[in-house]
Amino acid sequence: MSTQFAALPLSFDACYRAASGRDRRWDGRFYLGVTSTGIYCRPSCPARKPKPANCRFFPSAAACVAAGFRACKRCRPDALPGSRDWDHRSDLVARAVRGIRDGAIDAGGVTGLASSLAVSERHLRRILLDEIGATPIQLARTRRAHAARILIEQTDLSLTDVAFAAGFGSVRQFGDTMRDEFGMAPSAIARRAGQDAQAGGATGTGGDGERPGPESREWPTVTLRLQTRAPFDAQATRSFLAAHAIPGRDMIGAGTADLPSTAAPTSHAIDVPGGTARATISWADVPAVAEQEPGTLGIPVTLALPSLADTMPAIQVVRRMLDLDADPAQLAEAFAGDPILGPLVAARPGLRLPGARDPHEFALATVLGQQVSLAAARTLQGRLVAEFAEPGGHAELGFSGRVDASRIAAETPESLQSTLRITGARAATLRGLAGALERGLDIGQGADRERARAELIALRGIGPWTVELIAMRALGDPDAYPAGDLILRRALGVAGAKAAEAAAEAWRPFRGYATQYLWADFLAHAAAGGASPATSNPPKDTKDTP
Fold this sequence. Notes:
single chain, TATA-Binding Protein, Endonuclease III, domain 1, 5-stranded antiparallel β-sheet, 43% helix
């Protein structure tokens, strides 16, 4: 019998049955290590399954590597999209995993991550080892190695540039890690992928990854197909991004004679350590849901970066924006028997729950969007960007930098009211939120969600609707649920928030996804009937109304 970790979604026997049946629904949710060969696989690996005595099951690829296993060359478990299983939980281990996934180790090391979680490095290491079977450093190394392999296989970057882009501290560390993870040197991986190991670097950078000077208009560019689980509803995701586009931060392409507007590319400002990057998504190259094969799907994205060192942070932001770590099969199974959601999920397979690219921007934009239409909200948000963007936005990319909360906090309510042309009460709420963010209110993916909710609700002018929207898209809580939302209540046919809460109890821990399905269906029907699908708003009698 294998060593078990608490994070495994199934018992040993159930894991073995899933692996024996090559059940792809569990790919990425647990991994199979084979002691007789020293390799680890995804559950759906086509290779002959070993005897139970030779099997060990792990909750992460990093745990497999830490136990001495190498990735299978046949099923490529390292190529799997990420998992949102850790997003369902709010405990310390889950927060640590989300932080590492978002690059906390790259930014501040284990010391910085432990400090943000208010624990010692020793305690952090112990709890991750106990539950996941890997240390923070091992999790970060596996994350870098998997990203590096994708860059080797999908780009013409030199191996030196790949090491730099994937966040390795040296070429030697890069080589050692790749051998530990895959049993091959980076040059061997490049040869297997049909790449020239000495291929030239990305546009606008040399082999040392130097950032171009401010007078240069050439930026390092990286084009990738970011993996996600099929089905993926590209049209609905693009429509969501277009509906919430902020002037100065998003560009929504127009259609042409050969390309309908629903498939035109979109470009988005991406905030990375080096400044403001641009992500362009080629929607026309994503097949329609009905044409997608089971398994994984690549979403074509081109990144224009201040520096190659910004590659991984930019990728993670895009993955969050498009919800590429979602598991449609898991959601379909969870909602299949529900009389309300079952038909909606069947009619809209692959619908995603897009996340915020920047938590501060989203929270401030949400306050401005209270009680107004989407069009009016975009106008107000554009004014906010135009007036309060951080220095360092790049005109050559066509984008402003992120909104600077400290500058907003330094204004008076009267000056904000005049500049943004909003009500005095809304200006006071905006300034109060900006001040809280400046003082350290954490509403990012690794935050303590209950503490963040409590601190948000304590701010004047912010009520349950705003808090739950911020929890859903900034905190990344898939169970966030704005029960007081007007459109949500209409879709459910209930009169109040308590009734909406009761109706959704069976949908835990996916109430955020349930909300997305209910919104999408209601707005589609409203649009088809000629109604104007205004933004989803809080009811008039809540604290959300400034």
